[in-house]
Design brief:
heterodimer; A: alpha/beta; FAD/NAD(P)-binding domain; five-stranded parallel β-sheet; 28 helices; 40 strands; globular; B: 114 residues; mainly beta; Rieske Iron-sulfur Protein; 9 strands; binds siroheme; binds flavin-adenine dinucleotide; binds iron/sulfur cluster; binds FE2/S2 (inorganic) cluster
């Protein structure tokens, strides 16, 4: 019998509950109905602030779950006796089980004027839409001076809100009633440094004062502070804490916690056996949790219980660790950060010069009844890290376990770096998804041998990403040797070899392998070094010893096919091609008997050329103005375009023009792997730019740049790197992005997996190539300028050089004799190689059709030896 | 690197200068396709040009190197390596290519066929 489950609240935790239930309820015991007050489907609230950076609501939306969902229709009453819920629109829903997942509402202090137009809270996408509209209107208003905003509350969310306002073009002032920022997470010492770091990132801060009133003032607002100061503002955003959204439960007579929230036990059951509460609205044994990880753990417990399981909440799942995201200021706090545990000791390393503050809280020495020392101040209770939170990932899971070394050594600069083997199996590696070290090691034993595989099978690392460095460490300690050695000839990684070549000025493989490797190389290291040399601009790829490093494609500047022939792909920048060019390609293909096909990359491929034919084919193409399309190289392939403003009635920018310009700029640039691009003229995205290594989508204001897209084996959508750029800014950032990739990626690593492997991921990439955090951008740009200035068509280079041309022969002793093993047959009117033995020809499918349908009555054979064009 | 086997018929192929170090060349010898290689240390090797795994006549276009000191060529099609000393495929059991005798006479490369 189907039982009815009603979930009130379609936020992150309610969504996770339904997801967990759907995954496990394979017999479909439960019929699920979800009520949501917001009009949008559930979205990632933790990433809400990225909305102002251009992440779209669609991108934030959580996966659809295929259950009945009523949006914009909040529950207004619960009749527990009848087990019925009534909604605002008048629906009544009966339930066998009810889950409350209503989250929290922002707390707005009761100051006069708090409801005035221009006052906002910061919790939902609708809030952000309203804030954005008000900020844009303020910025557009004529008049001198920078537009400003007051943020009430200097906690985690207040700082995020301030950053969003700055991003929207306003000058934010943060007002915090406590004597320091992030008072819940950070102690006094950390708070002082945090304030300095925040102020240096262009946010004004006032601590120890509160807002006492907001009043209208000639179209703007004035916020009055407790010390009498008046601040002018175009907007006021309240971010002064949250309160559990427990009104519905209160009215239904459910027991509440002392400080609000629906009281639940460690099974998440309320005072009514049929009603559960999870997420921010739940007061688990009296205490509420304003973070998503404990909420997810509650969702898992209830999903398990609904299916008859016995799960309970464990203390480890109530991890309150937090990290400040996005401000460019490193702050992390975990466990008992304020040393509230009786007898706790604090160990602090404060370095104002380096701008770092680290504190660990450990248990005090404990003695047994007989006075023996049983715990020598070793159990980690919590900590605060400001300015450099890189040790957060490895310290956090140790909470509750003995520290492997002296506490001070663990936070001192250059001190002990924790190996993952120091962690017990029960340590939580990923707190967002409650994944323990034990779960990770068993996934590794089950064959998940890299971070993407671990993400897929454990969900670890898929939310905030802060645990990814630790996942790598666990992989390493589990003996998954992620050897960086390129091959048996070089112990270095590609990136290290790049540095060596760039730094030493070595320009030949022989010298490199003599000095930094061993042996004579192989088909792995030689092309990799050839690519490094080419990226550094060492002339034609066939010059000198370089010729012997190239793989066959690069050696013949064409793509090897299975029968030993090659394919020829002239560049068609942006996919734009004139009728005259089409005719030339057609004539060349006809005259040399080549098979032609439109590629997936908006150009034309001619197949079946023999080595000795290549120079003559290219002579014709070069004379007609074509250049190499580098279909054979680990280099720029194509920049796909849509017609954009040139023709399309929806286009907002000249996408073809940009695609052509970009393709001409980056043509011939060698990289660790091939890379592709696309430019779409509007958000309809007809060029599929988000499946490319770098993709550009036109906006009314300019261009949005996305990076790390991939089709192929593991499709991945490109992610937004920067938005509303003008063309010059766009090109500068792409220059830096590509050069940074070329310098640091592994051999045959596309940009997608490169970005995933970067510690800090997209944020780190943005810091490096947009904000120039490493100070290398000038260098990267200069390298790209050098490439652009020295580009020359490779095929022209061959045709103009007798020595290079001499290699394009079938046999040294019979240069023009065709290779007799190459046999062709005709297929659909074009020449194709003989089928490989054992390969079933798709044409057999045609043969099964009744002859009458085809026509004349004669059966059509798979291979038509007469070769007549049909 | 001359293998002395009685009754070899030697076929003249090309000037030694036509063979670039670590870059192969294909030759037509007595109706067969032979891939000839000159290694970095000056050694000469010749094997079948036809790659037994793909069936394409392309081994002369593979990358020359070494595996554990044994000179090799990697097929450009599916990348298996073959020993240039005895023709054995180092990546697939039981697969090998014929090895031919090579010598230099008066600056000319010659292939010996029994
Ligand atoms: C010709 C073409 C198929 C066609 O008939 O349309 C093609 C043909 C080959 N692709 Fe492709 N790919 C072609 C478009 C694509 C696309 C579509 C696109 O570019 O929009 C993709 C998916 C997009 C992407 O790359 O993210 C694609 C993903 C691959 C992959 C998987 C890459 C990956 O990261 O997963 C490989 C394998 C590799 O590179 O390791 C591959 C490898 C190859 C190779 C090089 C395989 C080989 O070594 O023989 C083929 C060379 C054929 C030749 O001689 O030209 N090809 N290949 C397309 C040439 C486009 C062009 O004009 O240059
Ligand atoms: C800007 C921002 C940044 C954050 N950053 C982090 C972070 O870095 N790390 C972290 O752990 N947490 C963070 N959080 C907190 C995190 O988003 C919450 O802990 C999490 O969303 C709680 O999930 P929930 O489902 O309990 O509540 P919510 O996600 O708030 O969902 C509750 C839903 O229930 C709906 N609802 C309420 N009443 C009713 C009703 N009567 N009928 C129907 N529907 C109703 C609400 O409209 C809402 O959609 C952040 C929050 C914000 C706002
Ligand atoms: S992406 Fe937009 S501009 Fe380009 S063709 Fe499609 S609809 Fe037109
Ligand atoms: S800790 Fe957030 S994703 Fe793992």
């Amino acid at each position: 019998m189907n039982r009815q489950l009603v979930v009130i609240g379609n936020g992150m935790v309610g969504h996770r509950l339904v997801q967990a239930l759907r995954e496990r309820d394979t017999r479909r015991e439960w019929h699920v109905t979800v009520l949501g007050e917001e009009t949008r489907p559930a979205y990632d609230r933790v990433a809400l602030s990225s909305y102002v950076d251009g992440t779209t609501a669609d991108e934030l939306t959580l996966p659809e779950l295929g259950v009945q969902l009523h949006l914009g229709d909040p529950a207004v009453a619960i009749d527990r006796a009848a087990r019925r819920v009534r909604t605002a629109s008048g629906r009544t829903l009966s339930y066998d089980a009810l889950v409350l997942a209503t989250g929290s509402v922002p707390f707005v202090p009761p100051v006069p004027g708090r409801d005035l137009p221009g006052c906002f809270v910061y919790r939902t996408l609708d809030d952000l839409d309203a804030i954005t509209a008000a900020a844009e209107a303020a910025v557009a208003r004529p008049g001198p001076g920078r537009r400003s905003a007051v943020v009430v509350g200097g906690g985690l969310l207040g700082l995020e809100a301030a950053r969003a306002l700055r991003r929207l073009g306003l000058s934010p002032q943060v007002v915090e009633i406590a004597p320091r920022l992030m008072p819940v997470q950070v102690d006094e010492g950390g708070g002082a440094l945090l304030r300095r770091l925040v102020e240096s990132s262009d946010l004004a801060v006032r601590c120890g004062v509160s807002v006492t009133a907001v009043a209208p003032d000639r179209g703007r607002l004035t916020a009055t502070l407790s010390d009498g100061v008046e601040l002018d503002a175009d907007l006021v955003v309240f971010s002064a804490g949250i309160r559990p959204a427990d009104a519905l439960a209160r009215a239904a007579g459910l027991a509440l916690g002392e400080r609000g929230g629906v009281l639940v036990d460690n099974r998440c059951r309320t005072s009514d056996e049929d009603v559960w509460a999870i997420g921010e609205v739940a007061a688990l044994e009296g205490r509420t949790y304003g973070l998503v990880a404990p909420g997810y753990a509650m969702a898992e417990v209830v999903a398990d219980r609904l299916l008859g399981g016995q799960a309970t909440m464990t203390p480890a799942e109530l991890d309150m660790s937090t990290q400040l995201k996005m401000l460019g200021v490193d702050v992390a706090s975990f466990g008992d950060a304020q040393a509230a545990t009786p007898g706790a000791l604090e160990v602090v390393v404060d370095d104002p010069v380096a701008g770092t503050y680290s504190k660990l809280v450990v248990s005090g020495p404990a003695r047994s009844d007989s006075g023996e020392l049983v715990d020598g101040a070793r159990t980690l209770l919590g900590g605060v890290l400001v300015g450099d939170a890189s040790r957060f990932a490895s310290l956090r899971p140790l909470v509750g376990s003995p520290l492997p070394a002296d506490p001070a050594a663990m936070i001192a600069p250059g001190g002990v770096e924790l190996g993952a083997d120091a962690l017990p199996d029960s340590a939580q590696i990923c707190s967002c998804n409650a994944v323990t070290k034990g779960a990770i090691t068993s996934a590794i034993a089950g064959g998940a041998h890299d971070v993407p595989a671990l993400k897929a099978c454990t969900r670890a690392g898929t939310s905030c990403g802060s645990c990814v460095p630790l996942l790598k460490k666990v992989l390493a300690t589990e003996g998954v040797e992620v050897s960086k050695a390129l091959c048996e000839h070089f112990g270095q990684s590609r990136a290290e070899l790049f540095e060596v070549v760039a730094g030493t000025g070595i320009r030949t493989f022989s010298e490199l392998v003599d000095r930094f490797g061993r042996g004579r190389g192989c088909d792995i290291c030689k092309p990799a070094i050839a690519s490094i040399l080419a990226s550094l601009g060492t002339g034609h790829v066939h010059d000198g010893e370089q010729a012997a490093l190239q793989d066959t494609n690069d050696h013949f500047l064409a793509n090897l096919q299975r029968n030993g022939t090659y394919s020829v792909v002239p560049r068609l920048p942006g996919g734009e091609v004139s009728p005259a060019q089409l005719i030339t390609i057609g004539e060349v293909a006809r005259d040399f008997g080549l098979y032609t096909k439109i590629t997936g990359g908006q150009r034309i491929d001619m197949f079946g050329a023999r080595v000795e034919q290549l120079p003559a084919i290219w002579r014709r193409l070069v004379d007609a103005g074509f250049e190499s399309g580098h279909a054979y190289g680990k280099a720029l392939r194509t920049v796909k375009s849509c017609v954009g403003t040139t023709w399309c009635r929806y286009g907002v920018q000249d996408s073809v023009g940009l695609a052509v310009a970009l393709e001409l700029r980056y043509r011939g640039l060698r990289a660790p792997h091939k890379f592709k691009s696309g430019v779409s003229g509007c958000a309809r995205e007809c060029a599929e730019a988000r499946s490319k290594d770098f993709g550009i989508i036109a906006t009314e204001q300019g261009w949005n740049l996305y990076v790390g897209g991939n089709g192929g084996f593991t499709p991945r959508h490109a992610e937004l790197l920067a938005s509303d750029l003008d063309t010059e800014q766009l090109v500068t950032i792409i220059d830096r992005f590509l050069m940074f990739y070329i310098r640091t990626a592994d051999r045959l690593q596309r940009t997608a997996s490169w970005i995933e492997s970067l510690e800090g991921g997209l944020e780190h990439l943005r810091a490096v190539v947009v904000e120039d955090s490493l100070g290398i951008c000038a260098d990267l740009e200069a390298a790209m300028e050098k490439h652009v200035g020295s580009y020359a068509d490779e095929w022209r280079g061959v045709l103009e050089d007798e020595e290079k041309l001499a290699r394009f022969v079938s046999f040294v002793n019979a240069p023009d004799t065709p290779d007799a093993t190459i046999e062709v047959v005709r297929e659909r009117g074009q020449p194709v190689p003989l089928p490989a033995p054992g390969v079933r020809q798709p044409t057999e499918l045609r043969l099964r059709r009744p002859c009458a349908v085809i026509g004349a009555g004669a059966p059509i054979t798979a291979h038509d030896p007469a070769g007549a064009d049909r | 690197m001359t293998t002395v086997v009685p009754d070899l018929r030697w076929h003249d192929v090309c000037d030694l200068a036509r063979l670039l170090p670590e870059r192969g060349a294909a030759a037509l010898v007595d109706g067969r396709q032979v891939a000839i290689f000159r290694t970095h240390d000056g050694g000469l090797h010749a094997v079948d040009n036809i790659d037994p795994i793909s069936g394409a006549a392309v081994l002369s276009r593979g990358i020359v190197g070494d595996r554990g000191g044994v000179p090799t060529v990697a097929s450009p099609v599916y990348k298996e390596s073959f020993s240039l000393l005895d023709g054995r495929c180092l990546d697939a059991d039981g697969v090998s290519v014929t090895v031919y005798a090579v010598r230099i006479t008066d600056g000319r490369v010659q292939i010996g066929i029994p």
